[in-house]
């Protein structure tokens, strides 16, 4: 780390924290920015055997069977333990010792509180409270690989990494072949195709020719450890990382040793690529495939940088606006910057085809290395324009871990833990592997049920089609969207203020009513203006208006 003796440290900002586990100990690895009078100073540290809190209901208050959203601190006893000991410590505190129990199973007890929040979240929150004004943009480096299409092996032939005014481009000797002046040719083509961009960014580009794909990857990761970006972004990470892992495994490199920061003790030097779910289940139980941009794949490693899928970040930040027509990097760059991926006149007719890559890899190798580098620099330019990684992602993610960014409920619960603790003197509840209760089977679920509006509830805004009656609106509509509305219950819960804390009882069944009628009444009652007469008639057997009128006339 740079000597800070001549600098005044004004505060510390945790950029990310990652939990790891060894043989007999655990660790929280922390990436920080030191805010000094000379600027930002990136640094790393770790905490071994961090003691985190959890709470258990006091014995005299264990008189309920259902889980609560929160509980008063006065009714709870606080315990502290290492994260790796949490299942054992909870079991012991409950008087139900079982060393075989997994955390989610132990937490089936309704008397466990505050166990969901993780050590990285606890540490990030404590830092944020201590230095609330220490905020800086995430620094972004971008990595990209190119793979063989000529021989059809799919092996890595080129790897590039760019970070502000620094970049490295690597290529394998096997692919370069007999080109003896490859570096000179590369720099010439770099000036020809990216000269203005490189000069504007004052980028120093290093070229490295490696013996194998693994050799190239190792050299690039060495630079990443030296440069210490907060994030290494990859556009469509599920292509690049599996290829990288495959190459390293094939050549006998240890992924954990390579990705772990040099300060990490040997016991904790582990890394893993976690492929996110590629399917989603709607509230009705329907299973559909996710678009690749909707999948949240992560790399777990104790590094000064976190690998993030730039394509997924772009998609998830804008998920409320609907899907983009395309998530190809070329399309997104053109949309926001008016730039396209590098094109070359000699193979212009083959653009966007496999043959283009074959021809480039065969006859235009220096140009192809420049192409590889621009995919990195282009992503940097994109983020400098739209600020996804720099500001939007860390703002939305808050104190949560990047690994859980795709889960808004998880991020919400992280925040709720501290809201309850600090504002309400209560501790947030803990989830388990089975959140169903004894009476859950009596509550109607959403499976195989489609909500449609009754005729009287349809807004009278169709187009006028009757020449003789121009003021009359029909039910005919044009320029329509097909909206597949699923999982709307979070919004309903907010509007109706529905929670365990606000629920006195939950209606399971109204005798004499079929399921469809009961569901319709429930939706109408929470959906704003309703037809009270219709509900009274269906639910309680009240007469309709025409029946009332008939009785009135008869009585008169």
How would you describe this structure to a colleague?
This protein is of the alpha+beta class. It has 3 domains: about 20-25 and about 45-135 and about 405-430, no CATH class; about 140-385, Ribonuclease H-like superfamily/Ribonuclease H (Nucleotidyltransferase, domain 5), CATH 3.30.420; about 440-555, no CATH class. It is built from 18 helices and 18 strands. It has helices spanning about 85-95, 105, 120-130, 175, 180-200, 215-225, 235-250, 255-260, 310-315, 330-335, 355-365, 365-385, 390-395, 410-425, 490-495, 515-525, 530-540, 545-555, and strands at about 10-20, 25-35, 40-50, 50-55, 70, 75-80, 110-115, 140-145, 155-165, 165-170, 205-210, 230-235, 270-275, 280, 285-290, 300, 305-310, 425-430. The longest helix has 22 residues, at about 365-385.
Features:
3 domains, 18 helices, alpha+beta, 19% strand, 556 residues, three-stranded antiparallel β-sheet, six-stranded mixed β-sheet
Q: What percentage of amino acids are in beta strands? A: 15-25%
Q: Oligomeric status of the shown chains?
A: single chain
**Biggest β-sheet description:** 6 strands, mixed
What count of domains describes the coordinates? 3
Radius of gyration: 30 Å
Strand-pairing-aware structural class: alpha+beta
Poorly predicted residue ranges? 482-487
- Total helices: the number is 18
The amount of helix comes to 25-40%
Shape: globular
- What is the mean predicted local confidence, pLDDT? 89
Overall number of strands: 18
Provide the CATH top-level class of the largest domain.
Answer: Alpha Beta
* CATH architecture tag of the largest domain: 2-Layer Sandwich
In whole angstroms, the N-to-C terminal distance is 96 Å
CATH topology of the largest domain: Nucleotidyltransferase, domain 5
CATH H-tier superfamily of the largest domain:
Ribonuclease H-like superfamily/Ribonuclease H
| Cross-sheet strand order for the largest sheet | 11-10-9-8-12-17
């Amino acid at each position: 780390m740079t000597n800070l003796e001549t600098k005044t440290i004004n505060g510390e900002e945790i950029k990310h924290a990652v939990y790891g586990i060894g043989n007999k100990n655990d660790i929280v690895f922390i990436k920080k920015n030191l805010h000094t009078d000379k600027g930002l100073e990136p640094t790393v540290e770790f905490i071994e055997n961090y003691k985190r809190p959890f709470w258990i209901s006091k014995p005299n208050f264990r008189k309920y069977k259902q889980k609560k959203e929160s509980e008063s601190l006065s009714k709870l006893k606080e315990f502290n333990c290492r994260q790796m000991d949490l299942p054992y410590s909870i079991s012991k505190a409950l008087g139900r010792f079982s060393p075989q129990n997994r955390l989610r199973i132990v937490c089936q007890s309704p008397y466990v509180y505050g166990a969901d929040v993780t050590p990285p979240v606890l540490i990030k929150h404590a830092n944020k409270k201590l230095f609330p004004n220490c905020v800086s943009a995430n620094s972004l480096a971008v990595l990209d690989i190119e793979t063989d299409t000529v021989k059809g092996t799919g092996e890595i032939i080129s790897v590039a990494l760019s970070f502000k005014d620094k970049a490295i481009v690597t290529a394998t000797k096997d692919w370069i072949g007999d080109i003896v002046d490859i570096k000179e040719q590369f720099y010439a083509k770099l000036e020809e195709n990216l000269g203005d961009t490189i000069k504007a960014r004052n980028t120093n580009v290093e070229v490295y020719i490696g013996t194998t794909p693994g050799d190239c990857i190792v050299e690039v990761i060495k630079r990443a450890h030296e440069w210490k970006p907060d994030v290494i972004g990859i556009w469509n990470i599920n292509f690049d990382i599996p290829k990288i892992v495959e190459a390293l495994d094939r050549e006998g490199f240890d992924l954990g040793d390579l990705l772990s920061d040099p300060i990490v003790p040997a016991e904790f030097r582990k890394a893993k690529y976690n492929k996110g779910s590629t399917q989603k289940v709607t509230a009705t139980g329907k299973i559909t495939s996710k678009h690749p941009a909707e999948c949240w794949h992560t790399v777990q490693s104790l590094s000064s940088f976190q690998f993030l899928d730039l394509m997924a970040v772009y998609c998830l930040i804008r998920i409320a606006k609907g899907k983009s027509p395309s998530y190809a990097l070329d399309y997104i760059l053109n949309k926001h910057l008016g730039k396209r991926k590098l094109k070359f006149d000699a193979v212009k007719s083959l653009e966007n085809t496999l043959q283009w890559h074959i021809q480039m890899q065969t006859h235009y190798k220096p140009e192809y290395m420049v192409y590889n580098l621009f995919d990195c620099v282009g992503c940097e330019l994109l983020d400098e324009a739209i600020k996804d990684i720099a500001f939007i992602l860390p703002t939305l993610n808050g104190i949560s871990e990047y690994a859980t960014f795709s889960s808004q409920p998880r991020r919400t619960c992280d925040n709720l833990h501290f809201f309850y603790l600090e504002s309400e003197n209560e501790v947030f509840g803990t989830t388990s592997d089975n959140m169903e209760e004894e009476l859950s089977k009596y509550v109607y679920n959403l499976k195989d049920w489609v909500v449609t509006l009754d005729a009287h509830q349809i807004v009278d805004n169709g187009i006028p089609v009757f020449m003789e009656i121009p003021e009359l609106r029909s039910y005919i509509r044009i320029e329509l969207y097909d909206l597949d509305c699923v999982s709307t219950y979070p919004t309903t819960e907010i509007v109706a203020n529905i929670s365990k804390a606000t629920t006195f009882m939950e209606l399971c069944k109204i005798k004499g009513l079929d399921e469809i009628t009961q569901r319709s009444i429930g939706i109408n009652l929470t959906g704003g203006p309703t037809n009270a007469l219709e509900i009274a008639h269906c639910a309680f057997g009240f007469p309709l208006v025409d029946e009332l009128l008939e009785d009135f006339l008869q009585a008169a």
